[in-house]
Amino acid sequence: MNANQTNQDGAGHGPGRVAPTGPNDNVAPTGRNGNKIVIFDTTLRDGEQSPGASMNLDEKLRIAEALQAMGVDVIEAGFPIASNGDFEAVEAISKIITESVVCGLARAGKKDIERAAVALKPARRKRIHTFISTSPLHMKFKLQMEPEAVYQAVIDSVTYARSFTDDVEWSCEDGTRTDWDFMCRCVEAAIKAGATTINIPDTVGYSVPEEFGAIIAMLFNRVPNIDKAIISTHCHNDLGLAVANSLAGVVNGARQVECTINGLGERAGNAALEEIVMAIRTRNDRMPFTTGIKTEHITKVSRLVSTVTGFAVQNNKAVVGANAFAHEAGIHQDGMLKHARTYEIMTPESVGLTESKLVMGKHSGRHAFRKKLEELGYMMDGEQLDDAFKRMKDLADKKKDIYDEDIAALVDEEAREQSRIRVVSLQVIAGTKGPQTAEIELEIDGDVRAHKSNGDGPVDATFKAIRALVPNTATLQLYQVHAVTQGTDAQAEVTVRLYEDGKSVNGLGADTDTLVASARAYVNALNKLLVKRQKRAPEALSA
Ligand code: KIV
Ligand code: ZN
Questions:
Q1: Mind listing the pLDDT tens digit for each residue in 261-270?
Q2: The domain 419-533 belongs to what CATH superfamily?
Q3: Which among 42, 45, 171, 237 is the best mutation to test ligand 1's pocket, defined by most ligand atoms within 8 Å of the CB?
């Protein structure tokens, strides 16, 4: 069963829903009559704004595709005026996403709105999301604008955005610290100017559930044209209340929730998509709403976002943490054996957490391998397939059992190797006697070069040797190792975050040897930095 199936009409839509008739049809009924909750994912915009979480274009495209496949209604793909990278990402995502609405963020100015409109042009279903602060504090100190000027900017920005698309969302930034009378005036004016979604952000994560719910209820009671728009929540997690506040908003009439995978986002993050969706699904008796999310995709998407950003998910994180479905205490295990529901309120399968299946081994054939790749979403043929097959066989020589996760890691690793710098070989001396030494061979723009370094441990020695061959001033912000599967022969997946010139990049590497995976991750991060640097000025690489 997924969240859809609990719906009265069984089709995943609220009773008041009108079937879409065109690309820009809205994604849910307006007002609070329908029971469908629009899931608006902002992992690629608000999530990406968290320090260190920046993603490259390829990574953003992969995440956007995974969000669409999971059934996300609206994907906020970026803030096109913020940078060329953001613009390109929104434009590229607009070209490939056909089911979900693609959304671009814009401040309340013409330039912002135009830039968003241009980036969104290729999208089949597009939304411009424009915002301005409405709290006394923000208007006075941040905007330095009088409330009447802000009120006029609301009307002008929404009117202008509507000249590009019928699907316009308006947000009152710092909504929960805004004067209620002023908020009602702005919301009414935004709807009158053509906004089809009104979003109420708890920008600084200050609100509490009772208060947030009351704000939403107040809007329904006081704004005369409120039934012409969908009301949305956008809650930050500074007090750990983002999910509770969002659900309080839903119970009081909000029909869109803005959220991110793993709760990624500015400071303490945003409301976590997986928690919102699973709370609605699990407690449908108290919250009789539906979402279009295929919950079995949750674990996979959570892992993808965590791997790409290098932001590990804490073990005890609700729904997607490693321990979320683990039962350690004897008394719990005993209960589970007698009846799973004694200690389990949702099944691991419902979020796509299944026992890792043994899929391939030394004796598996090319045909079976190709079929497995297809199942995992990788389409390969010819030379590319041959290379991946050879790598799988090499891995099978080192590791007895090969799981889905191993195959995904080795194919991703292969894609990462198509870059200017590549690890050819690594020889390390580690252990108690020292000195720890690493001798590395790198292929740099086609030339193979070698270097040997000592270090404080084998990882340090390896990174020093790489730095000697590819001099750089980047600082190491994160080094993280994660086992792809269980057992001592598991592949290690390493994340390395490098910081240079105000930008950080995450490099990934996978291998059964943790040090080889570390070298690959460092080199992958350097390749990404080169792409960034090259956009400024091409350069020669090696020392
Ligand atoms: O937190 C916030 O207020 C925002 C707005 C731009 C919606 O992210
Ligand atoms: Zn936000």
A1: 999 998 999 9
A2: Alpha-isopropylmalate synthase LeuA, regulatory domain (3.30.160.270)
A3: 171
